[in-house]
Design a protein that fits this description.
This is Spermine synthase-like isoform X1. This protein starts with 12 loop residues before the first strand and ends with a helix. By secondary structure, it is of the alpha+beta class. A hairpin with a 4-residue loop joins strand 7 and strand 8. The chain is built from ten helices and 17 strands. The protein is globular and about 55 Å long.
């Protein structure tokens, strides 16, 4: 992700020819120490947010270049105002206004969404699976407490039940306050909220209940690591009907090839229909892209490459309060086209 200042302003001049004015953001960056008054939060230094990971212990300090999911990198954006900071039983929650991407939600110092580019993630993780099967009726969302996936599912009039299992109620409450354009999904009468552990919820689900399951999970570190293991995928497959589909957040092709290989290998063992990797562009995620696992259980064949339920033909999909900003059938097909390097990496699978 990239942050930028507001352009040229008054101040120091550089060079003897043309007397270029140094932008205020550059003058701040050149300062030997961050301004103490701008340090509004542990991950906001001199008005800039950096995706970070705090060390444990009483004197926790921010390790900007030591996140295990993208070691050696920090992704930053300009902060205009801190809107909320709090801590639930599970994680730290931060909401701020950025200069380019609007309001931003971060959990444990890691960006989850921004107002400007959330459409690229929410629309793709939802419509890639739901447009690949005819008339989906029962859908389960794992995670997704911001409500964006629910908002997108609501475009499908064939759906009559939407279960969502989110472990952190505070995330939902914060998003309802600061991201109402996302949490509008919770207002759909088809939605049934379950607050608790996703793995336990799936273990208790009846066999063959869902037409589609969408896993909108955080990065697989700490407690979320369970969500990329074989037992979790087996409980998902058990809860899907024959020919049912899974769409699972699956990290970046630029940073996590080995993790993607492991997840795909597991899914080939578990899902006897079809298994694919798809991807989309999200500027504020590390490396600017995020991937999805698309899997189907044994049953009616599912052709993820050619949507059988195109969104352009769904009247309700185009009449909702918010127009589609990113997904369409052409992008659906393109999302499953893989770069040559990734084809080589995944070729043995």
């Amino acid at each position: 992700m990239g942050g930028s200042g507001s352009g040229a302003g008054s101040g120091s001049e550089v060079g003897g020819h043309g007397a270029e004015v140094v932008p205020s953001c550059c003058r701040k960056a050149m300062a030997s120490a961050p301004e103490s008054e701008a340090r509004q939060h542990a991950t906001v230094v001199s008005g800039w947010f950096s995706e970070a990971r705090s060390s444990s212990g009483g004197d926790a300090k921010v390790l900007y270049y030591n996140n295990p999911m993208w070691p050696g990198e920090a992704h930053s954006m300009k902060v205009e105002n801190i809107l909320y900071k709090g801590k639930s039983e599970y994680q730290e929650i931060l909401v701020f206004e950025s200069s380019i991407y609007g309001k931003v939600l971060a959990l444990d110092g890691i960006i989850q969404l921004t107002e400007k580019d959330e459409c690229a993630y929410q629309e793709m993780i939802t419509h890639l699976p739901l447009c690949s099967i005819p008339s989906p009726k029962k859908v389960l969302v794992i995670g997704g407490g911001d409500g964006g996936v629910l908002r997108e599912i609501s475009r499908h009039s064939s759906v009559d039940l939407i279960d969502i299992c989110e472990i952190d109620m505070l995330v939902i409450e914060v998003c309802k306050k600061f991201f109402p354009e996302l949490t509008v999904g919770f207002e759909d009468p088809r939605v049934h909220l379950h607050v608790g552990d996703a793995a336990e919820f799936l273990r208790n689900a009846q066999v063959g209940t869902y037409d589609a399951i969408i896993v909108d999970s955080s990065d697989p570190i700490g407690p979320a690591e369970e969500l990329v293991k074989k037992p979790f995928f087996e409980t998902i497959a058990r809860a899907l009907r024959p020919g049912g589909v899974l769409c699972n957040q699956a990290e970046s092709m630029w940073l996590h090839t080995h993790l993607i290989q492991d997840m795909l290998s597991t899914c080939f063992e578990v899902f006897k229909g079809s298994v694919h990797y798809a991807w989309t562009s999200v500027p504020t995620y590390p490396s600017g892209v995020i991937g999805f696992l698309l899997c189907s259980t044994d049953g009616a064949p599912v052709d993820f490459l050619n949507p059988i339920n195109p969104i352009e033909k769904l009247d309700e999909a185009l009449k909702t309060r918010r127009e589609l900003r990113f997904y369409n059938s052409e992008l659906h097909k393109a999302a499953l086209a893989l770069p040559s390097f990734l084809k080589r990496e995944l070729g043995h699978l």
